């Protein structure tokens, strides 16, 4: 299944008049619209290979159909997304679920879809068939050096796969922690983890980054050894200049002010990137922007301000990735919705008049500061996001085109109804 | 200080061209815009008398200036708001802070400002000077019947004041509860409270409603005797057909799905009304829509759907009130921002295509259902809200006019810099 | 694998002197110790059939060995627990995981282990192989009557199995809800669920109870159709006198005061029973008493007070069940720890001097009320719990005996290392 | 009002037999009881001067009587507590509420009561009468250097008072933060705060410590500039070796694992001390151990383990202080209950068999690790705490003696019924 250029063109043609009217009005309302469009065009969000199948919970999983059965089909799926929105030009692999059989062929296939390889992800939260030692009681934190070594070696192997594919970063998410008081000595768990991370860090090429993700809870329900931004920060400080903290929006305690965390990590030069999703209760892994779109905007507001203050390249100096689960939606539709919500929040943040906001802050004019942010959020900038797609050769309305092309049915016809992708 | 018609006209004139361009574009995008504008015009949000001064916390209070020193000045302040937005045509009094000296004069003053009297509020969470018995250990729940009787009598007296002013509802918010395990027998606290409420209910005129507000915590930090919607619901069921639950958006445990609660109370015929505000952590009493605007929209989405299903009058069949605190803003500006956010959420909810949403729900098409709600929320409907104001003779941009008229400075000149309004 | 009487006797003999010294001291400290021991002896906690295997999360599962492969082996496992503590004399089955092939043989087997059949549990949160319709979008709430009927029929079939085994209650836990705003019409979901429950209720024998469990979130992450105690209460009120609310300790929003909910449900005559476990973040399903033992005591404090006020039989008038998951422990050891913690909390609650507490409450003597509860909790009552076991022929230290008998190794030898029990 | 030695003796005599029986039994159960008693004797918990009056909330305050009217009477109150428990041998002053008029006289008075001066506390969360600049928009974070300087100068003045009294630490708790998105530039607020702290740090004597407290929310309800342990840690790292993080148990987001934070801060050499209290919802400031006593024990478990690992002196190398509010209790009784709960948790932590716990952890024997901690917690060690008091000349049951001596009535007689202590 491929989306052809003429299918996109014909879709766009049918929506063009309406789009242009809306764009024209938006331009009249938003100073700097052209610059925003250009930044949106440059902005790419990586798709994780494990988000292409139906998600599940510990209570069960209700599979959809036509899920990708191989790394090649996963690349094809991301290629489909990218053809539709030209904003998903990277794929993030998960080892061992996605071990390439032939690096060159894999690279060529990705290139044909216009995709690069984003961060590679290691997996030490599950036992693989035939694995000598179990991660039941942790991996990099484990009391037994043999098991830590197995996990270290796995991470180094992941780096090697990444090098072959042209990745330049390793994301380490550890489920290491404990379920009961007394189970762990927190200090030793920290020190073991640090020692293990140091070994992995030593294997990192010079042009690579190590992203250390934190998470408050799940699958461990008493403590997590990289449990909050402060812990991740303390590790990456010790590891060195190539180590950064990765923020997953769903990995916090209730009510956390994530935008402040983001601003401070940026200030410290230790923000590495993002796993986007949304949530109401815990790590719910819902579609980005589906529950708290204003929070998503506020986070981008800090990102734009903070990256500009450090003269960073928005598109390339941080890692942008989705990490969601799709229990009740077609995964590809869900990903299209997530990308749209992220692009919209980015556009809104770009439209904030920085100088005016700064003035309001300098004068403690809280009412005006709020008005400025709310105005940026309430203004409808979807035409700018659509225009960026249009210019890049993508669809004005990706979800609508996806549906009108019967993509899912085509995938089912090709792959079958009962396929189950690896992942969560 | 009064806002004159010609001041509003001149303000509107200066913004008219821009407004009309925006309105025209919005009309082209939103089917039924005219009907939405009419419903917005009819919609009035009551202002609580205690929200006209600077708020504080237990750690202190940083007063602003020009705060109203009397009931008359409070009415004047609400009159100012109403002149600016024509959407704040009611005031909600708090007894004993606002006991009228002369009912007739008070009614006439309010009428001159175009205001009616919304729900009257009793206060049994503080001791007043000279009060025979203390509410330290509760009021309607108290183990001592004498103290319960004092609180009952106070509520009946509040009803009497309300009758004289033309109010038609009593809001009962109880801080009753406990700070420590063992302090209360929960069952007896419930039964005492129910017995007390029954006596108050008996004093209620036939055309009145009793609103029973619930709150999860604060100022009691272990239990609250009307602690969640389920408890309030169980009381009002027993009290009778004039008793309803009142929802304050800040009175829930973390992550509560308030919109579902609202839908179910409406279904049961037991939703009485709202105290609007916003919050991140607890009962933070921030400006409505300042933190979670999508949640506010989702709540209105349930309200519109549910009220229409019961053929209710949006404007009059529920009580709409703000209950916020203004620690770092000019209270009047804050209230203008709250009203704007509420009107906008209402407009968005009105614009939801009900039939299409229902179809999506019938088909379990979660992606489309989300698109429908997000489209309503992302579309900029501020021009409809502004048009409703324009037609009603109010300002296109109330906050801007308030500032350009130097209202606060005028109030300070009239009333002084060090005035402190009664309230929280 | 069976635990023999002489093994228990010899274990007890080795600990007897120490036990008697401790018991004697405890008796000297606790008035009414004898009565407490007798009530503890009568108290039985049902073991759910799905808690006998290693639990997992959506991220994976680390199996132990020797897990029961059949209903017969599950009964055997509960029999082992009951032999060790004589407090686990019931098993709660889950259909379709535990459909008996031969009712009579199953009943006889259970009786040989001294077990009765507690509540039977239906399952409409997973699709079973060959099932005509999917529960992906709910079961009793489903927009499609055909699917609701399938779920209704399943529940009625569960009742039938229960009747054959001598159960007298049906526990309905629904994962029904939604993951995204707009997905559900809350009102219709409620009404569909109520209609479905009514059909199930109609099939309930006269001497049966229906327990309707509520849960705040998971596996749905936006709304749950029976989401809190208030919702469950509103359903069971409408269903009739055989319908009750079931409380699972892990099914609440953060910081909920569960003991107050318990007291009010008891007051209303609508508390049906419990699923015991403990948690820090969500439905963590940890060992009872492992995280918040004081809360567990406070809940029992309300239970004892409230049941006595209604002259209820502690042992039989409510359903007592464990519902936990054992990701990092031997499930049988975990269950022994849970039962011990529950018995201890019950003993502490029984030891509270009711009259003194009531006096303190009457006098608003908060300090004394706290002292009374803390004294009950801080006093070491483990000897009373042990004595109850001793008198019933169980082990003084069940976990120690379990280990010294190498029960797990024996089960592995019998059943194999790679068995995986049905369950979560 | 003073508690006389013979009053204590006579109280102790009446309880001695019972105490000795209990002590003797406890000794038989707990290895190392004697060492525990000695450590308990050495352990002192500072009483904050602002906790001696009735607390309140933003909704009101229900005063008790006999509250201290001056610094001298506050010292007298702490002296009373210390006479009763010999565990409260320090007072922590709050400037400007407690500015001494005569240092020498104040020191002598304290010495007469056996008290030393613990950390001094600055106050930049309220405006004082006559203060030139307002802290409405922050103090050390303020956008205006003039206001920052005022706050810096105040802190330096507090240090000077402390030097005169023999204090050796400054506690800085900042309410600085924001109530609305956009109000603050997080990065600049951080940098201003850091710059201000640097100036204060420069004024710190060599033998002093600076404690930087963090708090998630309240009185600011959107962001707090020192908002969590990670932020505090990042500041104190930059400040230098005399700067430490201070942990207040109520200053976290819901469900935080405080014991892990404590363990990691200790590991980093950056834990400074504690503000003890308990809470269910937010910074509820309830009596220590009143809500989550097991958590309090788990925190002490980390403290004992971690301090021993660093060969620290339990009594002197960290700052131990209560910070609670007493809305419904006699403040002095509440403080006695808090001290008792803290001492008990410390005793329990001391009784944990470290080697056995370590072995269980090394073997991933989660069940045994839990048993070890639960055994320490379930064993009744109150006799050891009482014995420590007895040996130090304090009362076996401080609350009981306080009541039998009618201390509160005496204080009312001396000071009056309507006194209101400064504080919260």
UniProtKB/TrEMBL annotation, chains A, B, C, D:
<protein>
    <submittedName>
        <fullName>Sugar isomerase</fullName>
    </submittedName>
</protein>
<dbReference type="InterPro" id="IPR050337">
    <property type="entry name" value="L-rhamnose_isomerase"/>
</dbReference>
<dbReference type="GO" id="GO:0046872">
    <property type="term" value="F:metal ion binding"/>
</dbReference>
<keyword id="KW-0464">Manganese</keyword>
<dbReference type="InterPro" id="IPR036237">
    <property type="entry name" value="Xyl_isomerase-like_sf"/>
</dbReference>
<dbReference type="GO" id="GO:0016853">
    <property type="term" value="F:isomerase activity"/>
</dbReference>
<keyword id="KW-0479">Metal-binding</keyword>
<keyword id="KW-0413">Isomerase</keyword>
């Amino acid at each position: 299944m491929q989306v052809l250029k003429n299918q996109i063109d014909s879709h766009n043609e049918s929506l063009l008049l309406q789009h242009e009217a809306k764009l024209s009005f938006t331009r009249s309302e938003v100073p700097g619209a052209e610059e925003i469009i250009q930044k949106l065009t440059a902005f790419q969000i990586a798709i994780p290979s494990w988000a292409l199948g139906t998600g599940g919970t510990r209570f069960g999983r209700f599979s959809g159909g036509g899920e990708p059965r191989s790394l090649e089909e996963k690349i094809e799926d991301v290629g489909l997304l990218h053809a539709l929105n030209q904003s998903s030009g990277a794929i993030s692999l998960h080892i061992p679920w996605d071990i390439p059989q032939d690096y060159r062929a894999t690279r060529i296939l990705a290139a044909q879809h216009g995709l690069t390889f984003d961060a590679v992800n290691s997996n030490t939260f599950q036992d693989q068939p035939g694995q000598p030692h179990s991660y039941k009681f942790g991996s990099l934190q484990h009391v037994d050096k043999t098991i830590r070594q197995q996990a270290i070696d796995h991470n180094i192997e992941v780096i090697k796969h990444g090098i072959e594919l042209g990745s330049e970063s390793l994301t380490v998410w550890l489920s290491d922690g404990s379920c009961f008081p007394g189970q762990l000595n927190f200090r030793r768990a920290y020190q073991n983890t640090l020692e293990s991370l140091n070994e992995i860090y030593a294997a990192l090429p010079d042009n690579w980054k190590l992203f250390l993700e934190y998470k408050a809870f799940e699958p461990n329900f008493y403590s997590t050894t990289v449990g909050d931004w402060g812990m991740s920060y303390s590790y990456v400080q010790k590891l060195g200049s190539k180590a950064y903290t990765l923020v997953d929006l769903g990995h916090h305690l209730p009510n956390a002010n994530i935008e402040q965390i983001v601003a401070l990590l940026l200030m410290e030069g230790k923000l590495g990137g993002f796993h986007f999703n949304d949530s109401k209760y815990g790590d719910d892994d819902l579609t980005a922007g589906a529950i708290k779109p204003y929070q998503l905007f506020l986070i981008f507001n800090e990102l734009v301000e903070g990256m500009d203050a450090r003269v960073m390249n928005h598109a390339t100096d941080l890692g942008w990735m989705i990490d969601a689960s799709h229990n009740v939606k077609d995964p590809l539709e869900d990903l299209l919705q997530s990308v749209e919500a992220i692009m919209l929040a980015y556009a809104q943040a770009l439209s904030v008049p920085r100088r005016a906001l700064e003035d309001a802050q300098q004068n403690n004019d809280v009412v005006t500061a709020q008005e400025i942010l709310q105005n940026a959020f309430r203004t409808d900038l979807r035409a700018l996001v659509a225009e960026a797609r249009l210019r890049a050769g993508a669809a004005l309305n990706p979800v609508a085109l996806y549906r009108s092309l019967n993509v899912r049915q085509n995938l089912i016809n090709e792959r079958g109804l009962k396929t189950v992708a690896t992942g969560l």
